[in-house]
Each structure stands twice: as structure tokens, then as C-alpha cells.
Write a structure and sequence with these properties.
Blueprint lengths: L3 E9 L5 H17 L3 E17 L2 E13 L2 H12 L3 E8 L1 H38 L1
Antiparallel strand pairs: 1-3, 1-4, 2-3
Length: 134
Amino acid sequence: MANRTYEVMYIVDPDTAGDKIEKLNEAVGKLIEKEGGEVVRMDDIGLKTMAYPIQKKAEGHYVLFEINGSGQEIAELERRMRVNDMIMRYITVRVDEDRKKATKLREKREARAAKRASFRNTAEAAQTEAPAEA
């Protein structure tokens, strides 16, 4: 199967001890690698105020994983997050298609800017030569 890139973010109950959160993050990383995926990046964002209360709590401990894999590991990871009492919410987003589109747009924009810059340079060169002839 094709290798895809996913971002998985989950919110841990703010009352959870820091060492338990670290163990949870390590367990998630090991699960992903065991299922055949690769953890590209793991950001422990920390305690943040949420947009709306979840389970009567206004804050949550945010963790973001960037994963390369086939999708098998995502299914198992989501299954385990669903039954974990420490995790209040989670979301998984496939980002590889969006990044390809963004790269194409960026390259197109840079090519257009380079074309404009070369046109400006030729126009400026023509203007500097004109007064010298007069």
C-alpha cells in the first residue's frame, strides 16, 4: 500500500500526571512503529485552553504526532484512543495530498514571481540605457 502522511492530535485530561502523559506518548509511538508506521515528529504542545469545555474541563494537554504509514496503524491507534480514559478527544487528518497541492501552488507562485522579476530587470536596464544615449 502507498505510504501516506497523517497528523494525529489528541487532548489528554488536564488532571493526568506528567509522567503518565509521557508514558502514553511513548506507548503511542511504540504502537505506531509496531504496526509498521513511522513517527516523523511528536510535539507535546502542553496545557492549553480549549475552545469549549469537554467533560466540564476548560483546559487540556495537547499532543501532536506526524506519522508516515499505510493506514493500518491509524485504525489500531484510533481504536485504542477510543477506549483510553485519559484521552478526551482525538482527530486524525491525512495531510499528504494537501501538502502536494501546496507545493505545486508554491512552485507556480515562485515561477510567476521569477518571470515578473526578469521582466522588471529588462525594463530597468532599458530605462538606464535610454538617458545615456541622449
